[in-house]
Amino acid sequence: MDRLSWGAHLCQFYHGSSDWLDLLTRFFLNGLNQNQFCLWILPPVIKRRDFDEMINKTRVFKEAFTSGQMEVATATRWYSLKTGFDPHKASQRLHLKYQESLKRGFEGIRVAGGPHHIKEKMVWKRFADYEKRVHQEIGSRKIIALCTHSFTECPLGTMNSLIQSHDRTLIQRSGQWEVL
């Protein structure tokens, strides 16, 4: 996690919230240490109150939120889930956050999020298309993105498409993260 280049677009498949949280904590700590703006897009299963409680237990994260170096957004809001997933709006939001982070003096942006909420097959297809678009957009920018997906929620057919639209895929086996 500490030797990622700008434009890196990673995919994480996780089994449970501890897998998800373990990798994301390291991902963001490295970004904060490198003066990167960090954006954490929370899945609906994580309640904002529980997240805030966890953040307040970690001094570095608490300071980053207080200083504005780190922000959190809910997946429901970020991906416009109440009105239907809109890949264009989500892509626009990322571009605006990127521009804002550079203006504020950060080296770039580090973002993590995923579709922990999608149940319909057509929405999964649109999300996979969105992943391809994001991959093209971040390639030439100072952005590092980690897309997180639950093994239990991601349809098998979509999993292959997601793996292909990322530079690297991370999975945890026997307690160790492996790169596919």
Topology summary:
Layout: E1 9-14, H1 17-33, E2 37-42, H2 48-56, H3 59-67, E3 70-74, H4 75-78, H5 87-103, E4 109-113, H6 121-138, E5 143-150, H7 156-164, E6 168-173, E7 176-179
Parallel strand pairs: 1-5, 1-6, 2-3, 2-4, 4-5
Antiparallel strand pairs: 6-7
Describe this structure in words.
The protein has 180 residues and is α/β, with parallel strands linked by helices. 46% of the residues lie in helices and 22% in strands. The protein has helices spanning 17-33, 48-56, 59-67, 75-78, 87-103, 121-138, 156-164, and strands spanning 9-14, 37-42, 70-74, 109-113, 143-150, 168-173, 176-179. A 7-stranded mixed β-sheet has the order 3-2-4-5-1-6-7. Helix 6 links the parallel strand 4 (109-113) and strand 5 (143-150). The protein is globular, with a radius of gyration of 15 Å. The mean pLDDT is 82.
Distance between the termini: 14 Å
Number of helices: 7
Uncertain segments: none
- Given the helix and strand composition, which structural class is it? alpha/beta
Q: Percent of residues in helical segments?
A: 40-55%
Mean of all residue-level pLDDT scores: 82
Strand order of the largest sheet: 3-2-4-5-1-6-7
Major sheet size, sense and barrel closure: 7 strands, mixed
Percentage of residues in strands? 15-25%
Cα shape: globular
Radius of gyration: 15 Å
Number of strands: 7
The H-and-E topology, N to C, reads as EHEHHEHHEHEHEE
List its salient traits:
180 residues; alpha/beta; seven-stranded mixed beta sheet; 7 helices; 7 strands; globular
